[in-house]
């Protein structure tokens, strides 16, 4: 906080230094005391965001030009020889931060890493750790507020005093601004604790006296009156801030307010002057404290200055709630009579609190006083006397601090506020005066013989105004009517006075516009709804900012706002009405979301989960989906941090309102399958390459499922098994899609499929006992399908390796090709044939067969639906841009690929339209009724049924009534069982059968292609007879998988092989002859 100007700044030497703070303690080291302990951890680090960020670190209520003017002025006034950074003090205009305009000219400051402690935790981690402990119930939220406050203060002190190195002027100014920001935040946390975190306690029975005393009556009233309690808490908060500032001064300088030599308040200069027997009517003739008033004269000027310095220190101690220290200062300075003014009734603590009652320890002295004079009579008389003294001092133009001291004892605001030039002091003066007047009103009733029902303070003031009573009519019996008109009527009135430059100092009204002061005023007024609106207006992105992942406003304010929202939710959970609770959820979620984005943008992804867990389910899911997508191409370490952050959430849905990890990963995986192109031009020239690149992005999303969860989870093994099962299921989905888009006979590998295999390698090494124990009917099928795809892509890799070698050899003239190169090509060809034949000749578990049984009964009205997103690809490999005519033609061609009888019998419907997500793709939807063997019962043929048959023709480019050679290149493919127009269960047998229809014929054709190459090179390896037997075997059913054109190609390859073999035999015979 920005305390009373210079006297709360331990580094500022004033003109009255020679009159006070004697005997300063000089440290033997150049390192100040603040450098010890916690604060040393924060040296040489930067708490705020990197200056290269577009988000401004340090904000100014004015603008950058004014800041530069301030800097220029201070630079001109500095002597650079022997310049010490600790002597530099920023102007008052920079002590509070409220604006959001960037100060680009100040980015010359050296940039450092985020602030870290010795243990490696950043400031973000520190706050997150504290909050997480409170959320888990390890500490009360009231204690959490105090931890936040103390942390902010310690880091602020470290910024300001912890670094003994010299700074450049600009750096020093920014460091001070950072320190002030944190000090402001600490003050706001302190107020929050005083209002909401500090418990209410009644008066213990052992402290109740009979007959009662004025202090006991006042305390009983304040315990029962909520407004009075709030006023007490505000006063205690402001006094605590001032007291902490004094403690800091002592910690830094080794001396503090009130450090005086004994008898330093005696008028030694006046005494020596009188001994010289000089006759000056303006100088007093006696040394008693009443002499100036009695003789209408003054003490010697040096003594007057020293008295004023003493009174200023007394005022500072009173302002900090240290009345006992102020009294001791008066005694040690040789002016004990001032103690009687400050502490009547023998020094009893008259503050209206239970703590004060306990401190007085059932003393009988006050009770004895009031048994004789009546309850409150002495109190009100003392108040009236203080009021008369303050007015008399003002009339004689006496010292402002002496006037303020007397005025503070009687709530005479018009005499107090002139010395309150900072916001905290003015607020304290208003709250303390209002508090004292409420005490006076309670006690005044005992004097007036009123009933025990105390009238409200506002009614008292309004009644006085209506009576038109003037100060001239007042006496001690009418107290406190003398000062009622000066007081605020309620908290709103107090806040209004702080904004009024006619009542308070201009600096106070200007400071009321600062951010943390606005926060504090809303807390004082307990206006949480307006506080939430205010915080959101500061941190919300502006309308022209499209990227919500770039936080708007001061990052530190966003951090404070998010923590404040969470704390208020827990503290006031049972006290909020429906409207406030709704606002705390809606606006609060937006603020927390913004802070999560701050953490994300500053590479603190591991902390996001703590805050995301406080969001509504849909916001939490959106947050993690965005983070996972944006970090998809980052390092494994970064992605693992996000994974750990997401594991803070429940793995499975337990409460409808809360998000879970499963929902997040489902959304991520689903969105990863949506086709997105970065280069619009390439899609027209090379569809296969576009799909190959896209498959890589799809595969990367599976890595989120392949991380190992924290072993600290109570159900670690179960979570780990579920992650692996989900990875298996999704990988199989992608393997099917990747196989269908990698039919092209090109050397480039299907990188997506091989990345999936690499991701699964490590998780599959772990024991699978827990995985197999899961109550999932398709675990074994998914594991078996994974092995099928592993074997398939192993074969595919060897084939593409052979094809690459063949294409490289084809570029070399036959005579220049070495024997080693020919032999290498032959060896790879043999390996490819062996791997493919091993897969094709499997008898016990044929490749990609399924034992899937429909979960529905034959009597149910069940449909099979197939949905796909695809591009139309011309024979040249270029994209065919769809339009309405083309979609209609494709739909008609799909209908025509089967007989009309099956169309009507199976109630087939086909819908083809331009994809709403991408105008260069088509969305394909097909639906038919389920029958035995195709949707109902066991699907023994393993060919995918009717829908797979239709779609296979489109994939192979053999639609009879469509453009010749145009193929359907899918980017997403799903099949479902549906009942009552609701997709209910995946029909994986359809897609598996489609893969068999497309992949197995292509595999056999590739083997024939290799055989042709071997025959051409004269190699004796011959697998044609095995391949022919496979195709002709009716039990295996391979023949039904071939289309007409594929069978023609098979026969052509066989013919070429026969011709090459005959040619080779003929050449061999001629050579032998």
UniProtKB/TrEMBL annotation:
It is found in: Nucleus, Nuclear pore complex; Nucleus membrane. InterPro entries: Nup84/Nup107 (IPR007252). One of its GO terms (cellular component) is nuclear pore outer ring. One of its GO terms (biological process) is post-transcriptional tethering of RNA polymerase II gene DNA at nuclear periphery. Gene3D superfamilies: 1.10.3450.20, 1.20.190.50. Keywords: Membrane, mRNA transport, Nuclear pore complex, Nucleus, Protein transport, Translocation, Transport. GO terms for molecular function: structural constituent of nuclear pore. It comes from the Eukaryota. Functions as a component of the nuclear pore complex (NPC). Belongs to the nucleoporin Nup84/Nup107 family. Part of the nuclear pore complex (NPC). This is Nuclear pore complex protein. It comes from Zostera marina.
């Amino acid at each position: 906080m920005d305390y009373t100007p210079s006297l709360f700044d331990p580094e500022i030497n004033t003109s009255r230094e020679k009159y006070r703070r004697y005997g300063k303690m000089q440290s033997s080291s150049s390192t100040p005391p603040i450098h010890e302990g916690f604060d040393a951890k924060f040296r040489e680090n930067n708490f705020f965001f990197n200056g290269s960020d577009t988000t401004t670190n340090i904000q100014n209520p004015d603008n950058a030009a004014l800041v530069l003017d301030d800097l220029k002025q201070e630079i001109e006034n500095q002597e650079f020889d022997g310049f010490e950074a600790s002597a530099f003090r920023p102007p008052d205009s920079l002590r509070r931060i409220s604006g959001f305009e960037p100060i680009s000219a100040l980015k010359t400051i050296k940039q450092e890493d985020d602030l870290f402690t010795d243990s490696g935790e950043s400031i973000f981690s520190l706050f997150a750790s504290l909050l997480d402990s409170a959320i888990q119930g390890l500490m009360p939220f009231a204690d959490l507020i105090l931890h936040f406050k103390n942390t902010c203060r310690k880091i602020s002190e470290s910024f300001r005093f912890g670094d003994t190195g010299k700074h450049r002027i600009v750096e020093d100014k920014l460091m001070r601004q950072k320190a002030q920001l944190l000090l402001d935040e600490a003050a706001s946390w302190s107020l929050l604790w005083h209002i909401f975190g500090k418990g209410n306690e009644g008066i213990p029975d052992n402290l109740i006296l009979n007959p009662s005393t004025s202090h006991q009556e006042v305390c009983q009233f304040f315990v029962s009156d909520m407004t009075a309690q709030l006023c007490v808490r505000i006063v205690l908060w402001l006094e605590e801030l001032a007291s902490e500032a004094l403690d800091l001064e002592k910690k830094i300088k080794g001396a503090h307010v009130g450090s005086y030599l004994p008898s330093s308040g005696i008028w030694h200069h006046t005494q020596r002057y009188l001994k010289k027997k000089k006759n000056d009517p303006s100088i007093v003739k006696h040394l008693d404290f009443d002499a100036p008033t009695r003789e209408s004269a003054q003490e010697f000027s040096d003594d007057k200055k020293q008295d004023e310095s003493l009174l200023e220190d007394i005022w500072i101690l009173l302002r900090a709630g240290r009345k006992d220290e102020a009294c001791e200062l008066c005694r040690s300075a040789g002016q004990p009579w001032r103690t009687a003014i400050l502490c009547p009734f023998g020094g009893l603590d008259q503050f209206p609190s239970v703590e004060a009652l306990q401190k007085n320890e059932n003393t009988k002295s006050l009770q004895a006083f009031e048994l004789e004079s009546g309850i409150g009579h002495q109190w009100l008389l003392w108040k009236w006397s203080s009021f008369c003294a303050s007015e008399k001092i003002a009339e004689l133009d006496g010292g402002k601090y002496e006037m303020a001291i007397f005025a503070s004892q009687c709530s005479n605001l018009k005499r107090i506020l002139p010395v309150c030039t900072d916001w905290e002091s003015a607020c304290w003066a208003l709250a303390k005066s209002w508090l004292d007047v409420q005490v006076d009103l309670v006690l005044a009733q005992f004097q007036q013989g009123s009933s025990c029902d105390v009238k409200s303070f506002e009614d008292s003031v309004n009644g006085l105004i209506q009576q038109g009573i003037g100060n001239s009519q007042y006496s001690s019996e009418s107290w406190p009517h003398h000062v009622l008109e000066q007081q605020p009527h309620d908290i709103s009135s107090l806040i209004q006075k702080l904004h009024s430059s006619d009542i308070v100092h201009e600096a106070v009204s200007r400071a009321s516009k600062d951010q943390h002061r606005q926060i504090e005023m809303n807390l004082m007024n307990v206006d949480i709804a307006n506080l939430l609106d205010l915080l959101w207006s500061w941190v919300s992105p502006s309308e022209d900012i499209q990227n919500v992942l770039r936080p708007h406003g001061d990052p530190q304010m966003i951090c404070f706002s998010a923590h404040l929202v969470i704390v208020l939710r827990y503290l006031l959970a049972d006290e909020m009405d429906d409207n406030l609770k709704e606002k705390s959820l809606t606006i609060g979620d937006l603020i927390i979301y913004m802070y999560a984005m701050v953490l994300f943008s500053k590479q603190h992804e591991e902390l996001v989960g703590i805050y995301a867990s406080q969001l509504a389910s849909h916001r939490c899911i959106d947050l993690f989906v965005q983070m996972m997508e944006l970090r998809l191409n980052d390092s494994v370490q970064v992605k693992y941090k996000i994974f750990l952050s997401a594991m803070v959430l429940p793995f499975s849905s337990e409460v409808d309102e809360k998000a879970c990890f499963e929902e997040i990963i489902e959304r991520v995986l689903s969105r990863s399958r949506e086709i997105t192109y970065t280069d619009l031009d390439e899609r027209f020239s090379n569809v296969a390459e576009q799909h190959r690149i896209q498959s890589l992005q799809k595969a990367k999303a599976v890595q989120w499922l392949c991380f190992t969860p924290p072993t600290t989870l109570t159900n670690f093994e179960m979570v780990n098994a579920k992650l692996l099962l989900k990875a298996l299921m999704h990988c199989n989905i992608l393997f099917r899609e990747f196989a269908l888009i990698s039919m092209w006979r090109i050397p480039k590998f299907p990188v997506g499929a091989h990345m999936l295999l690499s991701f699964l390698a490590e998780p599959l090494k772990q024991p699978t006992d827990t995985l197999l124990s899961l109550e999932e009917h398709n675990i074994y099928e998914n594991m078996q399908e994974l092995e099928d795809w592993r074997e398939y892509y192993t074969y595919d890799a060897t084939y593409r390796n052979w094809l690459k070698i063949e294409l490289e050899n084809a570029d070399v003239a036959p005579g220049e090709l070495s024997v080693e190169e020919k032999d290498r090509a032959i060896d790879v060809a043999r390996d490819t044939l062996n791997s493919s034949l091993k897969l094709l000749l499997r008898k016990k578990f044929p490749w990609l067969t399924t034992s899937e049984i429909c979960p529905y009964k034959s009597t149910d009205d069940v449909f099979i639906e197939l949905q796909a997103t695809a591009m139309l690809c011309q024979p040249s490999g270029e994209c065919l841009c769809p339009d309405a005519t083309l979609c209609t033609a494709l739909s008609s061609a799909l209908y025509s690929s089967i007989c009309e009888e099956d169309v009507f019998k199976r109630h087939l419907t086909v819908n083809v339209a331009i994809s709403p997500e991408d105008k260069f793709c088509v969305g394909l939807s097909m639906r038919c009724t389920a029958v035995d063997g195709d949707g109902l019962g066991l699907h023994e043929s393993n060919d995918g049924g009717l829908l797979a048959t239709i779609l296979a023709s489109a994939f192979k480019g053999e639609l009879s009534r469509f453009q010749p050679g145009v193929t359907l290149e899918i980017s997403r493919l799903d099949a479902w069982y549906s009942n009552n127009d609701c997709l209910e269960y995946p029909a994986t047998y359809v897609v598996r059968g489609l893969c068999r229809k497309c992949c197995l014929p292509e595999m056999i054709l590739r083997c024939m292609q290799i055989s042709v190459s071997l025959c051409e090179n004269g190699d004796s390896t011959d697998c044609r007879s095995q391949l022919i037997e496979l195709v002709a075997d009716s039990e295996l059913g391979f023949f039904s998988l071939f289309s007409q054109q594929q069978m023609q190609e098979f026969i052509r390859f066989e013919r070429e092989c026969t011709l090459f073999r005959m040619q080779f035999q003929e050449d061999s015979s001629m050579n032998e002859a």
